[in-house]
Fold each of these.
Amino acid sequence: MSNGVRTAGRLFSATYYLRPGETESRIGFAVGRAAGNAVVRNRLRRRVREAVRLHRDRLQAGWWIVLNPRRAALTAGFDELEREVERLFTRCSRP
């Protein structure tokens, strides 16, 4: 995704890229070892995955997104995590 757009927030950074002609969007999660041990990384991934699942219907087709959660996403409230995901999806829906 060298042509992708990078964005960063307090809870995660993301790279996204529009692929015209695609019928659905793809979302990946990458949590580096610096975030903590396997238990911590998996918990981070689960929290962000759930926020994405709840708001995926707002995302238009054709986007490829890679989310890199930060350690702050572990202690942040779930509503704050959802707002950040919504903000990213809104950014993706703009032309």
Amino acid sequence: MGYTADKLRSKSWDEFAQPDAPPMHFIITVCDNVVGEVCPVWAGQPISAHWGFEDPAAVEGSEEVKRAAFNQVFRKIKGRVQLLMNLPLPQFDKAAIKREMQIIGDMPS
């Protein structure tokens, strides 16, 4: 997709709940496996939403099929992030931002 992933790694949300963690303004969960789980209390009370996607890591098949599943989820996430970035966030209060984030998350995939 043109993004280097050399220094990227999967992180537990526990890492971001520590006192020395960077401040979070938005929390967006994306894996359908976390629906219904209790999230930690985030310092600063960031705005949170769930944008569920099927886990591409669970796809079985050839490398081509697996890559296609990851690419499809990537495109969907990118599209939703672009919608979020196009919102006039400075004009919204926290409740309106949360509502808009949920609307984006409820869009058909």
